[in-house]
């Protein structure tokens, strides 16, 4: 394993996740696949994302919209089995192509100032889509990010509610992985070695979060969405 590349991946992904509430899997997974098998890369990502959410949950508690979080969770429960069926019976490269096109088009519309009103049914739908993408392609973040961006949600509420939701969705996903796919020693040893890097990333991510205002936060969001869409378009 290339230790230097591993350090850079985990450090930058941790900073991104801590400062924005999303992005660890988007940034880390493609590069971890250069070092590990798909199963190992996915499970390392899930473990470390859970660590970040657990470490921040007390600090972000005041920023969590618990009513929206509850609807996200209920929606994702319906979406998780749908995503599993898609994974089992649908051609994943074509699914990634479709998702990438949707993300890129919606991101361009958001950049062009398209906005939507936040409603309870839309909260359930966003959670359901997140659950579906978690078990189908391992990316719960894009639906929530697109939804929150479209509703002009404040960065504090976006980060807090998203990180709290990840505590649920990533834990369930990790359990599904371990039960139905299995795990190995490499995953847990590598995750253990990565923990000091995660905590360094937590420190610098908190500093970055306090530094960026709402305007730059939104620009950061668009960049990550565009990166996600392009990555899914290429990675087929």
UniProtKB/TrEMBL annotation:
Query: Iron as a keyword?
Result: no
The superkingdom listed in its UniProt entry is Bacteria
* Matches recorded under InterPro entries: TM_pro_TauE-like, TSUP
Which Pfam families would you find in this protein's record?
TauE (PF01925)
Could you identify this protein by its name? Probable membrane transporter protein
- Localisation: Cell membrane
Transmembrane residues, as ranges?
A: 31-56, 68-89, 95-112, 163-181, 187-209, 216-234
Family, per entry: Belongs to the 4-toluene sulfonate uptake permease (TSUP) (TC 2.A.102) family.
Q: How does it sit in the membrane?
A: Multi-pass membrane protein
UniProt keyword terms in alphabetical order: Cell membrane, Membrane, Transmembrane, Transmembrane helix, Transport
Q: Does the keyword Transport apply?
A: yes
Q: What is the predominant subcellular site recorded for this chain?
A: membrane
């Amino acid at each position: 394993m290339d230790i230097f590349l591993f350090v850079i991946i985990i450090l930058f992904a941790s900073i991104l996740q801590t400062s924005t509430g999303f992005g660890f899997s988007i940034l880390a997974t493609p590069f971890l696949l250069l070092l590990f098998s798909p199963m190992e890369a996915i499970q390392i990502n899930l473990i470390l994302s859970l660590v970040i959410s657990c470490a921040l949950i007390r600090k972000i508690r005041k920023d969590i919209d618990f009513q929206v979080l509850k609807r996200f969770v209920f929606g994702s429960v319906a979406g998780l089995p749908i995503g599993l069926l898609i994974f089992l019976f649908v051609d994943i490269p074509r699914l990634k192509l479709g998702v990438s096109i949707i993300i890129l088009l919606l991101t361009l519309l958001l950049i062009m100032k398209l906005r939507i009103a936040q409603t309870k049914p839309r909260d359930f739908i966003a959670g359901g889509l997140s659950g579906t993408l978690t078990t189908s392609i391992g990316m719960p973040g894009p639906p929530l990010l697109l939804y929150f961006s479209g509703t002009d949600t404040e960065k504090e509420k976006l980060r807090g509610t998203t990180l709290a939701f990840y505590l649920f969705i990533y834990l369930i996903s990790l359990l599904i992985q371990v039960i139905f796919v299995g795990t190995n020693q490499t995953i847990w040893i590598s995750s253990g070695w990565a923990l000091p890097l995660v905590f360094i990333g937590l420190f610098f991510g908190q500093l970055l979060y306090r530094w960026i205002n709402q305007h730059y936060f939104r620009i950061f969001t668009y960049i990550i969405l565009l990166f996600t869409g392009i990555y899914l378009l290429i990675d087929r």
